[in-house]
Design brief:
- This protein is mainly beta and 119 residues long.
- The protein is 5% helix and 32% strand.
- Strands 1, 3, 4, 5, 7 and 8 form a 6-stranded mixed sheet that branches. Strands 2-6 form a two-stranded antiparallel ribbon.
- It is globular and about 45 Å long.
- The termini are far apart.
Length: 119
């Protein structure tokens, strides 16, 4: 029996302050700790601070963190309803603070050495 998944596409949430200067890394976004929305989907929003060790080991799933273990910022909304899903982590660039779902802590800002957060 096959599974039918309906996808509704909307405009992308832009998190960059300067969209012509950035570096992303392909990652797998973990589904643990992600609560379903009103439609039953588990969406990790663009701008989520990520960590978990994915920079040193590409087999590790990226998880939400907002502290000293921060390694990148999720570039696009990622649907993890059906388990861990591919995504992109911004590891270098300029991020608009007002576009993030949660403000980064001082520890996260320090850990993300190649990312500059701007108002």
């Amino acid at each position: 029996m096959s599974k039918f998944v309906e996808t509704i596409y909307t405009n992308k949430q832009e998190i960059l302050k300067f969209p012509d200067h950035y570096v992303n890394l392909a990652i797998t976004v973990a589904d643990t700790g992600v609560a379903p929305n009103a439609e039953g989907k588990k969406i990790v929003p663009a701008g989520t601070i990520l960590g978990g060790g994915f920079l040193l080991d590409d087999s590790v799933n990226a998880v939400k963190t907002n502290g000293a273990g921060a390694e990148g910022v999720l570039f696009n909304d990622t649907d993890v309803t059906h388990g861990p899903a591919p995504g992109a982590a911004l590891i270098h660039g300029f991020v608009a603070l007002d576009k993030l779902p949660e403000q980064p802590t001082a520890e996260a800002i320090t850990a993300l050495k190649q990312i500059t957060f701007l108002k």
